Amino acid sequence: MYEPEIRDFSPGGINSPSRTAGFESEAFPRLSHELEPTMSTQSAPDSMAGQSPVRRRATRSRTNTFPTVDVSPSQPEWHPGQEPGLDPSKPYGGRTASFNLHEDCQITLVDFSQEKIVKREFNNDEFVRFMDMEQEEWIKCRWINVNGLSWDVIQAIGKKKKLHRLAIEDMVNLNNRTKADWYTDHTYVVLTLQKLVHLHPDKDSDSESDSDDEQDITLEAPRKRKRGPFRKALYKFMKRRNSNVTPIDALAGGVHDTTKEFITGHTDGVQSSPVQKLRTLQRYHGGPNQERAAHMEKISPLTQKKLAVSAEQVSIFLTADNTVISFFENSADDIEEPILHRLSNSDTILRKSCDASMVMQAVIDAVIDLAIPVTSAYQDIIGSLELDVLTNPNIKHTTSLYVVTSEITTLRNFINPIANLINSLRDHKNVGQRGDVQKAASAVKISQMAQTYLGDVEDHIVLITESLDQLRRNADGMIDLIFNTISAYQNESMKQLTIVTIIFLPLSFLTGYFGMNFTDMPSIEHNEKYFWQIALPVAFVVILFLMRDMIVWWVKRTIQRRGISRSRKGRERRESRQRGLKEKRNR
């Protein structure tokens, strides 16, 4: 298990990008074939286009070359060796070409003090224009909540708050681990949000069509094919017979589409939650194999309940001017609603403290609270599978248990590092005056109150992690129980076959003996009674000889159990007499 890395990028820090290495140029003698710089001093983005500032050595024509493989097809704007980070002051962040990062964001900006609160909602263009305005003096704390990732919004916030280019690059890249980076005047926190969602089939999916030319639901791209009269009749019969299964298959076919990188659903337990495009645990950090992710989602026990677990990256900036900036991919409304309800009440801790670190604590706490229904859903799944395994163990149950174990392990790997992240935030002991932007120092502050309440969040994380560990152990134990039970059934069957074989072995031998076609054989002149007079004693002796160990074990076990039973009954009688004597004395 990895732990979140805490990097100090303050001036003079060991990881500071402004820190220069002190070495003398004489230590590196100039080589004859060293590249000679040109007279051009014009700075340009990290690109290879245009006039290069250095001369490149000519490539030999006889050298065999191989084309470079694009190891990150989902990020075509990335290439090895480029300048790290995204600079919001440059077009496209200083990259060679524009990258497709634009969507209509839902932006909520909340300014509040102990006496007043103002909530504003913007679209992309309105928010970019609002960022050019100066902050009013009455504002003690500001929270900017962005639902969606769009470069125009990120660039506007990055310019205004002077966010570090490395933090912006990490926010745009949706393949980060849980961590906290400390910069000069702001802190960047990234973690994973997990929530339980109800699945909705795609409206454009043909899997819900009731026509005769209905598409077959497969993992590949659906193809239409006409059914013959016999197939139509058989399909209608099976549909009526398995009416409770067909909607689930249709739902899985419409939601888990290999041609898409998302599923459609709404948050479980949230009133009037909109249908969103979400990524499941299998698709989040799951690699480029979409067929594998879709198949794992389709056979998941949660899908049978029309449920799924979505995961997305959450980025939070805590600045030195008492501002919190949170970025969500889709679930900003789920976090925003309870926090706005607390801010609207002047008696809450958030309003009284006017502390940005407390707002960040509230966001992290809401993210963890969304994971609690996920744990309850898996507890229900494990309980149902446990009943099936105990009453009717089947090898098919191991597939469901494997999928559940895989999802629980992935979920735990996302939640457990958040505990280390919270410990790193609590260990940051710089404390300043709360709610005073003008007196804020250049360093980021985690107030003592926020450190205290972060401990409560850590308790929730530990509770969820322990529950997931227990569920995973139960699933592993059920898999072992299935195989042990099946092996025991097989051993019992072999035991019964062995007993039957031992019983009929002497009979078969004698039958073969008396069935010989010998001319001179006086023993066959007797009647049937003569055969059984020989067969039964021989069979009895053979059974005693071959099953002697089993018979001895059975006799010993019977004697021991009878002795234990007599001892237990005697102890119960003595205890009953003693209780009777005590009752008489008490009277």
TrEMBL record:
Ranges annotated as spanning the membrane: 497-518, 530-555
Keyword Flavoprotein: no
Ranges annotated as biased composition (Basic and acidic residues): 572-587
UniProt protein name: Magnesium transport protein CorA
PANTHER family associated with the record: CORA FAMILY METAL ION TRANSPORTER (EUROFUNG)
Polar residues compositional bias, start-end: 61-75
Family as reported in the entry's similarity comment: Belongs to the CorA metal ion transporter (MIT) (TC 1.A.35) family.
Start-end of Acidic residues biased regions: 207-217
Pfam families reported for this sequence: CorA
